[in-house]
Amino acid sequence: MRRVPLLVTFLSGAAIASLFFIPHHKAQAVNSKLLEWTLVVYAFALILGSLSLWMSHAKKVKKRAEGWPYSMVTLVALLAIPGLGIWKGVGAGSPVGMIYDTVNAPLASSMFALLAFVIASAAFRAFRARSAEATLLLLTAIIMMIGRVSIGELISANLPGITEWLLDVPNLAAKRAIAIGVGLGAVSTALKIILGIERSYLGRS
Amino acid sequence: MLRSAPVDQALETRWFDPARLNVLIGILLFTAFLVVNILRAKANGALYVRPIAGLKALDEAIGRATEMGRPVLYVPGLSDMSEVGTFAAITILYRLAQRVAEMGCEIEVPCYDPVVATVIDGAARDAYSKAGRPDAFRPGCVHYVSAQQFAYVAAVNGFMLRERPAANVYMGSFYAESLLLAETGNTTGAIQIAGTDKVTQLPFFVCACDYTLLGEELFAASAYLGKEPVQLATIIAQDWAKALAAAAIVAALLLGALGHPQLAAWLRIA
Predict the structure, then answer these.
(1) Domain boundaries, chain B
(2) Taking CB atoms and an 8 Å cut-off, how many pairs form between chains A and B?
(3) For a Cys staple, B237 with which of A179, B37, B53, B139, CB 3.0–4.6 Å?
(4) Is the Cβ of B114 closer than 8 Å to some Cβ of chain A?
């Protein structure tokens, strides 16, 4: 029995990898069907995920752990929103749609907006010239920042060109080198899984 | 130059796309490298793999968490099981959970995707069993949070600020939330180790974390931590493939400069 999941992984992995090379319409129809199956698996996992969320927050409420009222809000929302969705629908103008537009979307935007501040604090730390590499980073960053705004061209007509060169030559070369490594690493991991060399994701060693 | 002619997919009757021959040859060569190195590993035993600072620091991070009596936070990225980065995150977690179980500290794994949460839960339980401490596994330490990017970030950041984990480990595929997570972790004073296959997020982790695994190091991490010869052989196969890719690029550029652009066109680098 231990070999059954490995066999399923091997056959599914080999079949889907082969479908990448087979453009025949029948093969592509099989490919589409297999992708639809993942949605079915996802639906079942969503139930497990919701149970996991419920249990995690219910435990906090029961123990009156720090921040338990927030867990209470999560539990109420977890029951109320699907209930409202089933009762009144989920389209625009429905209560769920309204909650999404007036509560969820502004909260998500606020979190995203925080990125501006954390970029500033991270940049401040990264640009401290503690070593030769950090000093090089600082100088490059200064050139980049000045060269990308209107005043850069007023300081020197060459600055925008230098920033473009920095982006298109050293920066792109490094990015492509990392991307090639990532691509090979991804293929290596996929092969390890298909061939059964890596099995930890199965929950058994 | 081999290229597919645009054909209506419903009428396509070919059983092989010649435009993808280069990919097929690449995969076959890679598989051959893998087989050769696995055979070498089985015959010779130990293989040398250069030390990776970020992975050596994992032990230090777990030790620090144990001494401080605080948990280790493991964030397995914000992708589903279709991303190979998520698989890498799961395999690293497996090794990490074994060390955590051996040292007797706590681990917390908030998940973005319910399928990933289910798979990680199984892997973590097995890791505790393999470490000989199945009873130490705390049900609920791996849990689903939210499949909304910033709701997930709010929950994880909240956990960092309330529980103050001693070590934060971010492995997998990350997007705009990478710096929000890493910077919050930085303010709590936790030791931070990150690794991602998303090139655009690497600078953020480099700025805010103590150690960062760059690109391919994420995929090598599991093999490196496991120290099993067969797993290490896959890293060497990866290096051989990288050398071959570099040689092919240089050869294609030289031939192109000499007026023979066929190789560059076939490799699709022209």
Answers:
(1) 53-226, 228-270
(2) 209
(3) B37
(4) yes
From the candidates A47, A201, A204, which should be mutated to test the interface with B, based on the most B CB atoms within 10 A?
Answer: A201
The rounded distance, in Å, linking the Cα atoms of B21 and B28 is 10
B168 touches chain A (CB under 8 A): no
CB-based contact B119 A107, cutoff 8 Å:
no
Q: Is the reported ipTM for this assembly greater than 0.85?
A: yes
b/e map B27-51, b = 16+ CB within 10 Å? beebeebbeebbeebeeeeebebee
Mean pLDDT of the residues in chain A: 90
3-state secondary structure string across A152-203 = HHHHCCCHHHHHHHHHHHHHHHHHHHHHHHHHHHHHHHHHHHHCCCCCHHHC
Q: Which pLDDT does position B9 carry in this prediction? A: 67
Tokens of B106: 């706590």
Q: Which long-range contacts (CB under 8 A, 24 or more apart) does A168-174 make?
A: none
Structure tokens at B18: 């010649």
What Cα–Cα distance (Å) separates residue B129 from each residue in A31, A92, A161, B136? Answer: 37, 49, 59, 9
Contact predicate B36/B117, CB 8 Å: no
- Average pLDDT estimate for A96-108: 93
Name which of B12, B31, B148 is nearest A25 (Cβ-Cβ).
Answer: B12
C-beta neighbour count of B236 within 10 angstroms: 20
pLDDT over 60 at B5, yes or no: no
Q: What is the pLDDT of residue B7?
A: 55
Percentage of chain B with pLDDT > 70?
96
Which tokens go with A110? 């606020």
The CATH number assigned to the domain with range B53-226 reads 3.40.50
Residue B2 has pLDDT above 50, yes or no: no
Query: How far apart, in whole angstroms, are the C-alpha atoms of residue B170 and residue B41?
Result: 30
Nearest Cβ partner of A180 from B153, B204, B242? B242
A70 CB neighbours in chain B (<8 A) are 158
Query: Is residue B79 classed as helix, strand or coil in its secondary structure?
Result: coil
Segment A52-62 shows an average pLDDT of 91
| List of chain A residues whose C-beta atoms are within 8 Å of the C-beta of residue B237 | 188
Chain A residues with CB-CB distance to B214 below 8 A: 178, 181
